Amino acid sequence: MNESDILILDSIDKFLERDVRPHVLELEQNDIYPEAIVEKMKALGLFGAMIPVEYGGLGLKATLYAEIVERIASVWMTLAGVFNSHLIMATAVLRYGTEAQKKTFLPRFATGELRGGLALTEADGGTDLQAIRTTAKRDGDAYVVNGSKSWITNGAEGSCFALLVKTDPKAEPRSRGISLLLAEKGPGFHVDKKLKKLGYRGVDTVEMHFEDYRIPADRLIGGKEGKGLNHALSGLEIGRINVAARGVGVARAAFEEALAYAQIRKTFGKPIAQHQAIQLKLADMATRVEAARLLTKKAAEAFDAGERCDMEVGMAKLFASEAALENSLEAMRIHGAYGYSKEFNLERYYRDAPLLAIGEGTNEIQRLVIAKQLVERNPV
Length: 380
Ligand SMILES: Cc1cc2nc3c(=O)[nH]c(=O)nc-3n(C[C@H](O)[C@H](O)[C@H](O)COP(=O)(O)OP(=O)(O)OC[C@H]3O[C@@H](n4cnc5c(N)ncnc54)[C@H](O)[C@@H]3O)c2cc1C
Known about the structure:
Layout: H1 3-20, H2 24-29, H3 35-44, H4 62-76, H5 78-96, H6 99-111, E1 116-119, E2 135-139, E3 142-153, E4 160-166, E5 178-184, E6 189-194, E7 205-216, H7 228-234, H8 236-264, E8 266-267, E9 270-271, H9 276-304, H10 310-335, H11 346-358, H12 363-377
Parallel strand pairs: 1-4
Antiparallel strand pairs: 2-3, 3-7, 4-5, 6-7, 8-9
Helix pairs in contact: 1-4, 4-8, 5-6, 5-8, 8-9, 8-10, 8-11, 9-10, 10-11, 10-12
Bound molecules: flavin-adenine dinucleotide.
């Protein structure tokens, strides 16, 4: 880690202690969009974290990005979701966009002037994205979009989305008929209800629908139809590194609070940290945090080296999200009744963690990716 990395991490730590930590309980419990915090995140350059410097971003390596996400998630996991899908959209433009698209969109994404995310999921198409029904029909120099999307994070507050559509609903294989459009809000683009969630509160996750919504044809990422699924999924590697790092952050926060509490809380004349049953839990929790962090670091290093890393990223996402789930439950047990109280952080970790096992490809899907790669990389 060089000096500039240390300075960046230092400014993140200061921001978290000064601008985030004191407000989390109130914002989270009332499901309030953290507008003032998002403005500070813009100033810190987080919306351009992975966008190259030539387009106005910070051009961070994935290893440093993962460190930042871990720190943010250890204070409030939701905040890492405000820029995650935004950066996946930016990755699709960076990797596959035309020169004009890169010049038009990336600098505005980097400053956060234009913010948004990914609009892939529909009522009948989550894991199976090829089952989406939203269509985009070419009409002169525009596409006319009709259909609906659900579970779209940043959908109300954001203004631009990488929108997955069928440009050829009859194509076989189905993937050949799927394209990705850069959709800025305008007439015919409707945001419907904000969804109520178990955790991951504060950030907006919505349903949206499109009614004869026209998008200029030059907003088709890469300019060629039929490549959208590939474009959308390629950005998921950095999305999965984000989710893995969030898992490390939540698992660590739960562990650290449990470790501190176990030394203060006394039963039968001694701190509970001296009861062997509690020691076993603490040991397992600490080991999970370390292992999750190392897997995440390894995945991020492979990403930075430009190596194929779907297996490494899948392992990190799978392990770190399960670590967050297990540690949040164990920390709650160690806190006894206090773990169940709305006045402390513990119950939030327990509500936030399950999302990590669902988002950016469920953990069942990560296992399938890992197994496929194991066989492919180890032919007999
Ligand atoms: C809070 C939140 C925010 C979200 N934000 C966004 C967003 O910003 N943009 C967006 O596009 N989407 C978003 N999503 C949607 C998310 O990506 C999907 O929920 C996820 O991809 C799973 O899809 P699904 O819910 O339709 O589950 P399904 O695909 O119906 O899966 C149900 C179950 O079946 C399993 N399963 C499915 N297929 C297989 C298979 N082939 N083999 C084994 N098991 C399988 C799954 O693992 C899961 O356990 C969000 C979801 C949540 C909860």
